[in-house]
């Protein structure tokens, strides 16, 4: 009860009507996924997934292909990310 009265007296701050904020890292990741190098690695990852999913018993995983793809995307993003941040 005490806290409800206390918080009722505090001023509220509302954000101005602005466009929704966009994470520059996500924008750069989408752009980097479209590069030829990342597309090639994405195809290798998808081929591995298709191969693994087509078998009922396998010990193969696609971890290496996934890490290669994520590394390439992150490497591409790091070139431009710091200039986009405030």
From TrEMBL:
The signal peptide here is none
Tell whether Membrane is among the UniProt keywords.
yes
Name one process (GO BP) from the record: mitochondrial electron transport, ubiquinol to cytochrome c
Q: What is its main location?
A: mitochondrion
Domain (Ubiquinol-cytochrome C reductase hinge) spans 23-86
Q: How does it sit in the membrane?
A: Peripheral membrane protein
Gene Ontology CC: mitochondrial inner membrane
Q: List the disulfide bonds.
A: 32-76, 48-62
- Whether Mitochondrion counts among this entry's keywords is yes
Key words, A-Z:
Disulfide bond, Electron transport, Membrane, Mitochondrion, Mitochondrion inner membrane, Respiratory chain, Transport
Tell me where it resides: Mitochondrion inner membrane
The entry's family comment says: Belongs to the UQCRH/QCR6 family.
Give the function comment from the record. Component of the ubiquinol-cytochrome c oxidoreductase, a multisubunit transmembrane complex that is part of the mitochondrial electron transport chain which drives oxidative phosphorylation.
Name the chain's protein. Cytochrome b-c1 complex subunit 6
């Amino acid at each position: 009860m005490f806290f409800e009265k206390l918080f009722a007296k505090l001023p509220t701050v509302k954000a101005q009507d602005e466009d929704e904020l966009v994470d520059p890292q996500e924008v750069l990741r989408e752009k980097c996924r479209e590069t030829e190098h990342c597309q090639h690695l994405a195809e290798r990852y998808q081929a591995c997934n298709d191969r693994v999913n087509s078998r009922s018993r396998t010990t193969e995983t696609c971890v290496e292909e996934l890490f290669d793809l994520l590394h390439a995307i992150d490497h591409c993003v790091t070139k431009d990310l710091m200039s986009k941040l405030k």
